[in-house]
Design goal:
This protein has about 350 residues and is mainly α. The protein contains 15 helices and 5 strands. It folds into 2 domains: about 250 residues, Fic-like fold (Orthogonal Bundle); about 90 residues, Winged helix-like DNA-binding domain superfamily/Winged helix DNA-binding domain (Arc Repressor Mutant, subunit A, Orthogonal Bundle), CATH 1.10.10. About 55% of the residues lie in helices and about 5% in strands. Strand 1 and strand 2 form a beta hairpin. The mean pLDDT is about 90.
């Protein structure tokens, strides 16, 4: 979900089913579609590193999310997974093309709409100041939460890379929210930003503006506009937490899954005892294969066949043919199991 909506903000609309296929290395024969699938897979692989914590992350991603080393490693890990077609940027005024080097800070002057980011030579200095201002251990918990949207805007304003700054900034925000203890992989600020993308971009541009008068902060940029951006961003966060809490509420989620199972059972595509296996997996987290006959009340061979069919449908998974099975949430069933998660898909 985070991947789908973050890329959608950049104008790359990769259907969740195609993202699901990319995770199984099932790529389209259409070159453009395949490139977007690879981009989506790159995003998910990098976020998986962040969600695994510093113990499993590569060295560059083990440090604080506001450090220059982290930000460069994040962009590098993302870009080095991209196909060559997505590693080029073109100047709309001159037509000149430049190749993106993974992890390399910007060496050219750029312009994004009306905003002219800092000069290439100043980027390292501004990133050092960024780290000093938003270093989490130096802040109280409330300030650490407020720092997330402020840092999000300031990183976009610095624009440290030739390309990928939006996705990097959203992943940095994801990592910062996790560092504060209020962010998890169960909700995505990108979904809310994408659903209010016009307001998001307008708020970003407003916070790019110089201060409005002598009481509008002490720096070069408008403090009032930055405050408005932070309030917008945090309202989006609260909205997404509330939305995901509603769709993940155990009783209603299980009800939607069982409604889908009922349709499949009536259609003859799944065995009637499939629901007992799914309910157990949902409630317990995983099931030892040896318990499936007891759960279903079927003989060993028939129980094994019922289990295999659920694995084939992608709703259960197992590390091996002997390992326990656990519940999956396949992209193809997102609209049935999680209504409005991906609204407007065709």
């Amino acid at each position: 979900m985070n991947c789908y909506y973050s890329n959608l903000i950049e104008g790359h609309n990769t259907h969740p089913i195609d993202i699901d296929r990319a995770l199984r290395a099932d790529y389209s024969t259409n070159a453009a579609k395949r490139a977007l699938q690879l981009e989506a897979r790159a995003h998910i692989e990098v976020q998986t590193m962040l969600d695994g914590g510093p113990e499993t992350a590569p060295p560059g991603l083990a440090g604080p999310a506001t450090s220059s080393a982290f930000i460069q490693a994040l962009q590098s890990e993302f870009c080095r997974r991209l196909p060559d077609d997505l590693l080029w940027v073109e100047n709309p005024d001159t037509g000149d093309r430049a190749r993106i080097v993974p992890g390399e800070l910007r060496l050219r002057h750029v312009k994004i709409g009306r905003h002219v980011p800092v000069s290439p030579g100043a980027v390292p200095r501004f990133l050092a100041r960024f780290e000093a201002a938003y270093r989490a251990p130096e802040l109280g918990r409330i300030d650490r939460v407020v720092a997330v949207p402020a840092a999000h805007h300031r990183l976009l304003w610095i624009h440290p890379f030739l390309d990928g700054n939006g996705r990097v900034a959203r992943l940095v925000s994801h990592a910062m929210l996790r560092e504060t203890g209020v962010g998890t992989s169960l909700w995505s600020v990108s979904r809310g930003l994408a659903r209010s993308v016009t307001d998001y971009k307008r708020a970003v541009m407003a916070a790019d503006e110089p201060r409005r008068n002598d009481v509008d902060g002490r720096g070069a940029l408008s403090e009032a506009a930055l405050t408005e951006f932070c309030e917008f961003f945090l309202r989006v966060c609260v909205d997404q937490v509330e939305f995901m809490a509603s769709v993940l509420e155990p009783a209603t989620l299980l009800g939607r899954i069982e409604a889908w199972l009922g349709d499949e059972i009536r259609a003859g595509t799944l065995h009637p005892r499939s629901s007992a296996i799914i309910r157990e997996a949902f409630q317990m987290g995983s099931i030892d294969r040896g318990r499936v006959p007891t759960i279903t009340g079927l003989g060993e061979r028939q129980a094994r066949n019922v289990l295999s069919k659920l694995i084939e449908r992608g709703v259960l998974s197992s590390a091996s043919h002997r390992a326990p099975v656990r519940l999956l949430f396949p992209g193809a069933l997102a609209e049935r199991w999680f209504p409005n998660l991906y609204p407007g898909l065709t």
